[in-house]
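user: can you give me the structure for this one chain? tokens are fine.
assistant: on it. calling the predictor now.
[tool input]
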Amino acid sequence: QVQLVESGGGLVQDGGSLRLSCAASGLTFRSYSMGWFRRVSGREREFVTAVRSIGGQTYYRDSVKGRFTISRDNAKNTVYLQMDNLRPEDTAIYYCGAHRGVILSDIRDPDQYDYWGQGTQVTVSS
């Protein structure tokens, strides 16, 4: 049984930092690209960042470039999201996902992901 378990969310002030973790089990972690998405109440889940299984290339949505950093540790089956200089508009539930596909454009599409975690709330106060 595949499980993705996020942790590290919480309440932080504008300009603060958080580090999210997503621990995976039940799958061959190194074979999956891993992504972080977020959902604000009433809105669709949106792509935040992803790291490919092969080569480790990373991708970011424009609004988080220079502030967020994704990384993965294949030995620990874990993907991380370091979030710095957080803004109130970053407030959302953050989900990690695992993507087995090879089409590059799919990495930003939540419908192409095979597994999801339960999400962790991030709240940035102004």
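assistant: here you go. The chain has no helices and eleven strands. The chain has a mean pLDDT of 96.
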